[in-house]
Amino acid sequence: MKVFFTLLVFALAAPMAQAQPSLADGFGRFNLEAARNRYAVQHGQLSDGTQVERFELRDGDCTGTDCSRDRERVEFIQNTGPRNGTEVWVGYSVMLDPTWPDLGPRMNTKIGQWHLPRFQGRGQGPTLLMEVNDECLIVSVKDPNVPDTDPMNPAPNLAWDCIAPRSQLIGRFNRIMVNAIWSTGADGKLDVYLNGRLAWSHRGRTINVNAQPYFRYGIYRSFVSRCAAGCGTQIAYFSDVVQGRSRAEVE
Questions:
Q1: pLDDT tens-digit profile of 220-236?
Q2: What CATH number matches the domain at 2-250, 3.20.20.70, 3.40.50.2000, 1.10.3720.10, 2.60.120.200?
Q3: Residues of the signal sequence (predicted)?
Protein backbone atom coordinates (compact mmCIF):
# COMPACT_ATOMS: atom_id res chain seq x y z
CA MET A 1 0.00 0.00 0.00
CA LYS A 2 2.91 2.40 0.59
CA VAL A 3 4.03 1.89 -3.01
CA PHE A 4 0.45 2.37 -4.21
CA PHE A 5 0.14 5.67 -2.36
CA THR A 6 3.56 6.95 -3.46
CA LEU A 7 2.69 6.34 -7.10
CA LEU A 8 -0.56 8.22 -6.64
CA VAL A 9 1.03 11.26 -5.03
CA PHE A 10 3.76 11.38 -7.67
CA ALA A 11 1.20 11.37 -10.45
CA LEU A 12 -0.65 14.28 -8.85
CA ALA A 13 2.39 16.41 -8.14
CA ALA A 14 2.46 18.45 -11.37
CA PRO A 15 1.06 21.99 -10.80
CA MET A 16 -2.16 22.99 -12.56
CA ALA A 17 -3.25 26.49 -13.58
CA GLN A 18 -6.74 26.01 -12.14
CA ALA A 19 -9.04 23.49 -10.48
CA GLN A 20 -9.96 20.64 -12.81
CA PRO A 21 -13.46 19.51 -13.96
CA SER A 22 -15.31 16.47 -12.63
CA LEU A 23 -14.44 13.02 -14.00
CA ALA A 24 -17.72 11.49 -12.79
CA ASP A 25 -19.77 9.45 -15.26
CA GLY A 26 -23.52 9.03 -15.71
CA PHE A 27 -24.70 12.05 -13.69
CA GLY A 28 -24.99 14.79 -16.28
CA ARG A 29 -23.31 18.09 -15.52
CA PHE A 30 -21.48 18.95 -12.29
CA ASN A 31 -20.57 22.40 -10.99
CA LEU A 32 -17.61 23.02 -8.68
CA GLU A 33 -18.35 24.86 -5.45
CA ALA A 34 -15.04 25.93 -3.95
CA ALA A 35 -12.71 28.83 -3.43
CA ARG A 36 -10.97 29.31 -6.77
CA ASN A 37 -7.60 27.88 -5.79
CA ARG A 38 -5.62 25.80 -8.29
CA TYR A 39 -5.00 23.13 -5.64
CA ALA A 40 -8.75 22.64 -4.94
CA VAL A 41 -9.21 19.79 -7.44
CA GLN A 42 -6.43 18.08 -9.37
CA HIS A 43 -6.43 15.07 -11.70
CA GLY A 44 -3.97 12.20 -11.40
CA GLN A 45 -3.52 8.63 -12.55
CA LEU A 46 -2.71 5.36 -10.83
CA SER A 47 -0.11 2.99 -12.19
CA ASP A 48 -2.91 0.86 -13.70
CA GLY A 49 -4.31 3.87 -15.59
CA THR A 50 -7.21 4.61 -13.24
CA GLN A 51 -8.07 8.31 -13.16
CA VAL A 52 -8.14 9.95 -9.71
CA GLU A 53 -9.45 13.29 -8.44
CA ARG A 54 -7.56 14.89 -5.58
CA PHE A 55 -9.50 17.35 -3.39
CA GLU A 56 -7.76 19.72 -0.99
CA LEU A 57 -9.48 21.97 1.55
CA ARG A 58 -7.57 24.50 3.64
CA ASP A 59 -8.58 26.91 6.38
CA GLY A 60 -10.50 29.83 4.90
CA ASP A 61 -11.50 28.00 1.70
CA CYS A 62 -15.07 29.20 1.42
CA THR A 63 -17.18 30.94 -1.17
CA GLY A 64 -20.56 32.67 -1.32
CA THR A 65 -22.77 32.19 1.72
CA ASP A 66 -20.43 29.52 3.15
CA CYS A 67 -18.07 32.25 4.37
CA SER A 68 -20.76 33.82 6.55
CA ARG A 69 -22.36 30.52 7.61
CA ASP A 70 -19.39 28.81 9.27
CA ARG A 71 -18.71 26.38 6.40
CA GLU A 72 -15.84 25.43 4.09
CA ARG A 73 -15.94 23.12 1.08
CA VAL A 74 -14.54 21.87 -2.18
CA GLU A 75 -17.34 19.85 -3.78
CA PHE A 76 -18.65 18.88 -7.17
CA ILE A 77 -22.43 19.35 -7.21
CA GLN A 78 -24.72 17.53 -9.63
CA ASN A 79 -27.09 19.84 -11.51
CA THR A 80 -30.16 17.58 -11.39
CA GLY A 81 -30.82 14.33 -9.58
CA PRO A 82 -32.68 11.29 -10.94
CA ARG A 83 -36.46 11.24 -11.16
CA ASN A 84 -38.15 10.25 -7.91
CA GLY A 85 -39.56 6.74 -7.77
CA THR A 86 -36.91 5.30 -10.08
CA GLU A 87 -34.13 3.03 -8.87
CA VAL A 88 -30.64 4.54 -9.01
CA TRP A 89 -27.17 3.30 -8.09
CA VAL A 90 -24.18 5.49 -7.26
CA GLY A 91 -20.67 4.20 -6.65
CA TYR A 92 -17.42 5.93 -5.77
CA SER A 93 -14.05 5.03 -4.29
CA VAL A 94 -12.55 7.32 -1.68
CA MET A 95 -9.26 7.47 0.21
CA LEU A 96 -8.12 9.93 2.89
CA ASP A 97 -4.58 11.26 2.83
CA PRO A 98 -2.31 10.14 5.72
CA THR A 99 -2.09 13.82 6.72
CA TRP A 100 -5.85 13.95 7.40
CA PRO A 101 -6.16 15.81 10.74
CA ASP A 102 -7.92 14.55 13.84
CA LEU A 103 -10.53 17.24 14.56
CA GLY A 104 -12.17 15.56 17.55
CA PRO A 105 -15.68 14.16 18.04
CA ARG A 106 -17.55 17.44 17.42
CA MET A 107 -16.35 17.91 13.84
CA ASN A 108 -17.76 15.71 11.07
CA THR A 109 -16.48 16.07 7.51
CA LYS A 110 -18.72 15.06 4.63
CA ILE A 111 -17.20 13.03 1.79
CA GLY A 112 -20.43 12.43 -0.13
CA GLN A 113 -23.92 13.94 0.11
CA TRP A 114 -27.35 13.45 -1.39
CA HIS A 115 -29.07 16.82 -1.04
CA LEU A 116 -32.56 18.07 -1.79
CA PRO A 117 -32.99 21.13 -4.05
CA ARG A 118 -35.18 24.12 -3.25
CA PHE A 119 -38.83 23.17 -3.01
CA GLN A 120 -41.74 25.60 -3.19
CA GLY A 121 -39.35 28.50 -2.74
CA ARG A 122 -37.60 27.11 0.34
CA GLY A 123 -34.14 25.67 0.71
CA GLN A 124 -33.88 22.04 1.77
CA GLY A 125 -31.27 19.98 3.58
CA PRO A 126 -29.41 16.75 2.83
CA THR A 127 -31.12 13.39 3.00
CA LEU A 128 -28.05 11.10 3.11
CA LEU A 129 -24.51 11.97 4.22
CA MET A 130 -21.29 9.98 4.29
CA GLU A 131 -19.35 11.54 7.16
CA VAL A 132 -15.94 11.11 8.77
CA ASN A 133 -15.15 12.04 12.37
CA ASP A 134 -12.16 11.24 14.57
CA GLU A 135 -13.15 7.56 14.82
CA CYS A 136 -15.57 6.43 12.11
CA LEU A 137 -16.99 6.47 8.63
CA ILE A 138 -20.63 7.29 9.34
CA VAL A 139 -23.89 6.81 7.44
CA SER A 140 -26.03 9.79 8.43
CA VAL A 141 -29.66 9.76 7.24
CA LYS A 142 -32.09 12.56 8.03
CA ASP A 143 -35.58 11.69 9.25
CA PRO A 144 -37.71 11.81 6.07
CA ASN A 145 -40.83 12.63 8.09
CA VAL A 146 -39.46 15.95 9.41
CA PRO A 147 -39.05 19.20 7.38
CA ASP A 148 -35.41 20.26 6.98
CA THR A 149 -35.01 23.81 5.68
CA ASP A 150 -32.12 25.18 7.77
CA PRO A 151 -28.73 23.51 7.15
CA MET A 152 -27.28 25.05 10.31
CA ASN A 153 -30.18 23.69 12.38
CA PRO A 154 -30.64 20.30 10.73
CA ALA A 155 -33.52 17.88 11.12
CA PRO A 156 -33.05 14.94 13.50
CA ASN A 157 -31.43 11.78 12.20
CA LEU A 158 -33.17 8.60 11.22
CA ALA A 159 -29.74 6.97 11.48
CA TRP A 160 -26.21 7.96 12.43
CA ASP A 161 -24.27 4.71 12.23
CA CYS A 162 -20.57 3.92 12.17
CA ILE A 163 -19.90 1.44 9.35
CA ALA A 164 -16.07 1.37 9.46
CA PRO A 165 -13.19 2.77 11.51
CA ARG A 166 -11.74 5.95 10.06
CA SER A 167 -8.33 4.25 9.93
CA GLN A 168 -9.66 2.00 7.17
CA LEU A 169 -9.91 5.02 4.84
CA ILE A 170 -6.41 6.34 5.50
CA GLY A 171 -4.07 5.56 2.61
CA ARG A 172 -6.36 3.06 0.85
CA PHE A 173 -9.40 3.26 -1.35
CA ASN A 174 -12.77 2.02 -0.10
CA ARG A 175 -15.73 1.55 -2.44
CA ILE A 176 -19.02 3.12 -1.36
CA MET A 177 -22.20 2.24 -3.25
CA VAL A 178 -25.70 3.58 -2.65
CA ASN A 179 -28.84 1.99 -4.08
CA ALA A 180 -31.83 4.31 -3.71
CA ILE A 181 -35.43 4.84 -4.64
CA TRP A 182 -36.11 8.42 -3.55
CA SER A 183 -39.76 8.59 -2.56
CA THR A 184 -42.20 10.16 -0.11
CA GLY A 185 -44.10 6.86 -0.05
CA ALA A 186 -43.72 3.30 1.15
CA ASP A 187 -41.89 2.27 -2.03
CA GLY A 188 -38.73 4.11 -0.96
CA LYS A 189 -35.46 2.22 -0.55
CA LEU A 190 -31.98 3.09 0.66
CA ASP A 191 -29.09 0.61 0.82
CA VAL A 192 -25.47 1.57 1.54
CA TYR A 193 -22.66 -0.83 0.63
CA LEU A 194 -19.03 -0.66 1.70
CA ASN A 195 -16.53 -2.68 -0.31
CA GLY A 196 -19.29 -4.84 -1.75
CA ARG A 197 -21.02 -5.67 1.55
CA LEU A 198 -24.36 -4.24 2.70
CA ALA A 199 -23.60 -1.86 5.59
CA TRP A 200 -26.93 -0.10 6.15
CA SER A 201 -30.49 -0.55 4.86
CA HIS A 202 -33.88 1.19 5.03
CA ARG A 203 -37.29 0.60 3.48
CA GLY A 204 -40.08 3.16 3.30
CA ARG A 205 -40.12 6.91 2.90
CA THR A 206 -36.69 8.34 2.00
CA ILE A 207 -37.35 12.07 1.41
CA ASN A 208 -39.51 14.65 3.20
CA VAL A 209 -40.62 16.61 0.10
CA ASN A 210 -41.31 15.52 -3.45
CA ALA A 211 -38.05 16.85 -4.89
CA GLN A 212 -35.13 15.11 -6.63
CA PRO A 213 -32.02 14.57 -4.45
CA TYR A 214 -28.78 15.37 -6.24
CA PHE A 215 -25.28 14.09 -5.50
CA ARG A 216 -22.29 16.03 -4.15
CA TYR A 217 -18.80 14.69 -3.63
CA GLY A 218 -15.55 16.14 -2.35
CA ILE A 219 -14.85 17.63 1.10
CA TYR A 220 -17.36 19.68 3.10
CA ARG A 221 -17.14 20.77 6.73
CA SER A 222 -19.47 22.99 8.76
CA PHE A 223 -19.32 24.69 12.16
CA VAL A 224 -15.64 25.33 11.48
CA SER A 225 -15.53 27.86 14.33
CA ARG A 226 -15.43 24.83 16.65
CA CYS A 227 -11.78 24.45 15.58
CA ALA A 228 -10.22 27.07 17.82
CA ALA A 229 -6.93 27.15 15.88
CA GLY A 230 -8.40 26.30 12.47
CA CYS A 231 -9.39 22.91 11.12
CA GLY A 232 -6.23 22.42 9.08
CA THR A 233 -5.76 20.97 5.61
CA GLN A 234 -7.81 17.97 4.51
CA ILE A 235 -6.95 15.97 1.38
CA ALA A 236 -9.09 13.20 -0.10
CA TYR A 237 -8.89 11.17 -3.31
CA PHE A 238 -11.88 9.98 -5.36
CA SER A 239 -12.01 7.62 -8.32
CA ASP A 240 -14.61 5.80 -10.44
CA VAL A 241 -17.49 8.09 -9.48
CA VAL A 242 -20.41 6.57 -11.40
CA GLN A 243 -24.21 6.68 -11.50
CA GLY A 244 -26.23 3.93 -13.15
CA ARG A 245 -29.42 1.89 -13.09
CA SER A 246 -27.91 -1.35 -11.78
CA ARG A 247 -25.25 -2.57 -9.39
CA ALA A 248 -23.23 -3.97 -12.28
CA GLU A 249 -22.91 -0.48 -13.78
CA VAL A 250 -21.31 1.06 -10.69
CA GLU A 251 -19.46 -1.76 -8.91
A1: 999 999 998 899 999 99
A2: 2.60.120.200
A3: 1-19
